[in-house]
Amino acid sequence: MDSETKRSSFTGKIGFILAAAGSAVGLGNIWRFPYLAAKYGGGIFLLVYIILSITFGFALMVAEIAIGRKTQQSPLGAFRALDKRFSWVGILATIIPVLILPYYSVIGGWVTKYMFGFMAGSMGDMANDAYFGDYIGKVGEPIVWFVAFIAITTLIVIFGVQKGIEKVSKVMMPMLVVLMLFIVIYSFCTLDGAWAGVVYYLKPDFSHFSIMTVVAAMGQLFYSMSLAMGIMITFGSYMKKDISIEKSTHQIEIFDTGIAFLSGLMIVPAVFAFSGGNESALGKGPGLMFITLPKIFNTMPGGAVIGAIFFMMVLLAALTSAISLMETVVAVVMDKLKLKRWSACLLVFGACLLLGLPSALGFSAWANVKILGMQFLDLFDFISNSILMPIVALATCIFVGFILKPKPLVEEAELSGKFKAKKLFEIMIKWIAPVCILAILISSVLDVFGIVKI
Ligand code: PFF
Fold first, then answer.
1. pLDDT for the residue numbered 257
2. What span, in angstroms and rounded, lies between the C-alpha atoms of 53 and 61?
3. Does ligand 1 have an atom closer than 6 angstroms to the CB of 108?
4. 145 neighbors 112 (Cβ within 8 angstroms)
């Protein structure tokens, strides 16, 4: 850390939780969770996700925050400070945001486009089935919105006005929750066939279970809670010693999972209502939210205004997450290349444009280019979520469980009082999590290379 980025502390408990929640709650909850839940079996996916969240997710988040607070360093320095042989974990963790930010911005661009679309009165068009596919199939426009999203993020990071954004999001997040609740209730009361979707989403059906359900749920867990990529280590390094790591983790977890749950409830039943429960509609993937929501708004009185407000809040949630992704990368670039903030920001901006372009073009000009059967956006998503994050998570567990031993981290967590789930933490981090992560990692690799179909 150089003098320009002197490590400061969050002003208090609420400051820490809000910043961490701002990073955690984003497109992962609102865009990614519902399409995975729809695709991977509804209720059974939800059940697996919740179990993983209160076991793995909890243990990993406590470990990461405690590592950060104990070493007072970002991931790059933290692993090196604790054991030189594990420096590579810090490096890998730092690479992950570099891979995520570009394609995250492509989707951020879609959200921006939809917000302006509602404002400009194109709701009727956007409610058509073919609209989204036609839109991302164009070469020019999606790129313009992608560049706009990444430019806004960069400007915020250059001028260091994150604090202002956090203040706005403090007000907007509760509003987003209320709006989502309203949309859920509205669809249940007015859309025929939504109930079948509620059953699909809430009732675990074991015949829909496959290893891919667990692979997808675990990748989503890391992504949604900003785990296994060093973010929580960085946040932990800013956290004051008298704040309870355990309680904060629970709060972030509940908030993050709550919003994801609500997004699923908003989108999955509506998919049923509009498609008559057609399986192919459930498997729509990344476009699901953009195809389904305009249809709901289109049936609502005042839907254009409500839709515009909704997408504005989603954009804000996406921005707070993108800012935390960019800030981590910029901090490393400043440190390593000894650059000033604005030059580091411009460098990261340029790299993002280059890396994001294939994801943006993957639905239009480069639609025929497939690697391992995936378009670029899916490929970046797969490499980061299903390969690199499990590797970092596994290495973190082995490191904490056997090299460092859980004790120093338990002591760190106990600085602010009793650590109630200490036993769960120790058993999870040492035994259950590493074995499961390894099994999942191997099966997802075998699956994608077509060696075993799971
Ligand atoms: N957790 C964010 C989301 O759910 O949208 C995505 C994310 C943000 C991941 C920041 C990682 C990160 F550092």
1. 96
2. 10
3. no
4. yes
pLDDT digits (tens, 9 = 90+) for 86-135: 999 999 999 999 999 999 999 999 999 999 999 999 999 999 989 999 99
The rounded Å distance from CA 46 to ligand 1 centre is 19
* CB of 26 sitting under 6 A from ligand 1: yes
Nearest-5° Cα angle at 264, 384 to 164:
70
Q: How far is the CA of 170 from the centre of ligand 1 (A)?
A: 17
Structure tokens, 120: 């400009």
Positions in the chain whose pLDDT score sits under 50:
1-6
Q: How far is CA 225 from CA 138, 214, 256, 267, 280, in A?
A: 32, 16, 7, 21, 29
User: Which residue has the CA at smallest separation from atom 7 of ligand 1?
Assistant: 226
Give the integer Cα–Cα distance in Å for 249 and 6: 25
> Do the Cβ atoms of 10 and 237 come closer than 8 Å?
no
| Per-residue confidence (pLDDT) for residue 12, from 0 to 100 | 59
Q: What pLDDT was estimated at residue 133?
A: 94
The token pair at 56 is: 């793995």
Q: Is 332 in the pocket of ligand 1 (CB under 6 A)?
A: no
pLDDT of residue 47: 97
Give me the pLDDT at residue 1, please.
Answer: 41
Closest residue by CA, ligand 1 atom 13? 325
229 lines ligand 1 (CB under 6 A): yes
Distances (CA, A) of 54 to 59, 181, 256, 424: 8, 24, 12, 10
Cβ–ligand 1 distance for 23 under 6 Å, the answer yes
